[in-house]
Amino acid sequence: MASGNLPACLKVSLVHEGGWSDHPKDPGGATMKGITLATFRRFKPGASKTQLRNISQTDVEFIYRGGFWSPIRGDDLPHGVDLATFDFGVNSGPSRAVRYLQAVVGVKADGKIGPGTLKAVILADKKKTIQRLCAKRLGFMQSLKIWNTFKRGWSRRVADVEAMAVAMWLAHAGTPPASRKIELDVEADKAAGKARTQEQGAGGAAGGGATVGGGDAAITGEPNWLLIAGIAVAVIVVVTVLVMKSRQNKDRAAAYKAVAAAA
Predict the structure, then answer these.
(1) Distance of CA 100 to the CA centre of its chain
(2) Domain boundary residue among 114, 141, 174?
(3) Among 45, 78, 91, 194, who pairs with 249 as Cys (CB 3.0-4.6 Å)?
(4) Hey, what's the torsion of the CAs at 71, 77, 81, 85, to 10 degrees?
């Protein structure tokens, strides 16, 4: 179990949370080290933005433990799975992160980690659990209206957390550094291969869509503009999805490569 692993997980999350942010399109509003003003005020009623901006490290760790780590029962989750769940919770709420974790391991998704959830997580393949949870997390993010504003940063963050979480599990499982590096490099190559396939698929779809309508026009003498328009829309959707997935797998490949190099 990951008892005492909060500092390591928090270190990863804070790299992505960064420092001060008050983006007008961020529904969370003013944020410092991932802590929103609303969250800070639950611990310090009436706190100002200035106080949030100058929050102490002691308060940061206290808030993350009480607000995010304890609700996901981080001390009881396996190494790596704790990081993937914790970082998801920091971004999108602990209850949602737990529900998605429960969906991954095949138990009732009620947002609360009990004995049944813990047993399922412990028995599951840890690497696959981490990867599937991160994939579901990214899928949730893509459903948000603000996805287009934050998609690049979010995609890289989830990729980095996935790679770091897998490396964390491998290290805890006793995998020697050399073997760990090989396994991480393999994951990087898998992601890069998927990216290439998706990129080629996008190119093929775009090229195929450009020729649609020629046969119909040759038979009738007139192009079927309604058919062409409908197919063009479908092609655009397919190409967009494949390009997006290719970009995400490139992010995953880069993240695994970086973590492998560090290993």
Answers:
(1) 12
(2) 174
(3) 194
(4) 0
